[in-house]
User: What shape does this take?
Amino acid sequence: MSITDQIQKVRSEFSSDLEKLSSDNSVLDKIRIKYLGRKGLVSALFVHMGTVSNEERPKMGQALNALKKDIESEIDAAISSSSDSKNQKLLDVDYTLPGDPINRGSIHPLTLVMEEIKSIFNRLGFSIAYGPEIDSDFYNFEALNIPKHHPARDMQDTFYITDNILLRTHTSDTQIHFMENNNPPVRIIAPGRVYRNEDVSVRSYCLFHQIEGLYVDKKVTFAELKGTLDYFARELFGQNVKTRFRPSYFPFTEPSAEMDVSCIFCKGGGCGICKKTGWLEILGCGMVDPEVYKSVDYDPQKWSGFAFGMGIERMAMLKYGVQDIRLFYSGDVRFLRQF
Ligand SMILES: [Zn+2]
Assistant: This one.
């Protein structure tokens, strides 16, 4: 079929389609797409222009453009004369306008800090272990040298599900699970959610996140503990940060210490955030108590090691200068969008 015949055919097909329109206005957009769409009949004819001889091309081009114009104006005319408000709307749409912006999510600040801490310890050869959030008294307390009626239990307000099952109060339960199933040497960090039955305030929430670390090998020393955590603090808060260790007490480590970093806000000079001390407490640590090894059948004469634990919320609050812990759980996009 010659291109002239094809143009004629499309023209008459369009006329008959347009007649149907008078009885059903809703087919209008279908007609528009059928003829003027990117893969429509008119576009198809333009593709065929390649096969037309050079002499004929200008004439055919004219005829084809005329067809396109006629179809466009007839469709517009049909819409104008139509009382169908939906068709009227078609005219009002400007297809050249840019689209609506898509709201993209951002990574939650707790996830950001958690990932950064994980990657620092990964570089030191620590692998990641996970434990259950609902656990038994044994893993959360007993095996960590916190027997029933031990005063340390008062330090942690626990959500009990039954007398024996609870929401873990720290990620230290993962240490026990891991050591039960693996022989030393051990080098793990255990990130996760923990729960405390505390009043919700600017500084505390009923749930938060911890990362616990455990290193067990032969002849592990306190100097290695200090070196590891010193490296960690400098990687997280900057190379100029200073650290110090203060004696402390935890039932599952002996000796135990708290580690401070020089205040990252006033550089140690003293400010409101460090309460004029120039230091910020960031984590607890110590050499694993031999009693803990006994509960997982490790020989305390043969193995030694250290453990440490820190709150992710506290790290994120320090790192990003967040003043209210509740913001992390508010779901407020004005807060989340800043990360
Ligand atoms: Zn300060």
User: Anything to note?
Assistant: Residues 34 and 40 are 5 Å apart (CA to CA). Residues 263, 265-266, 270-271, 273-274, 278 surround zinc ion (CB under 6 Å).
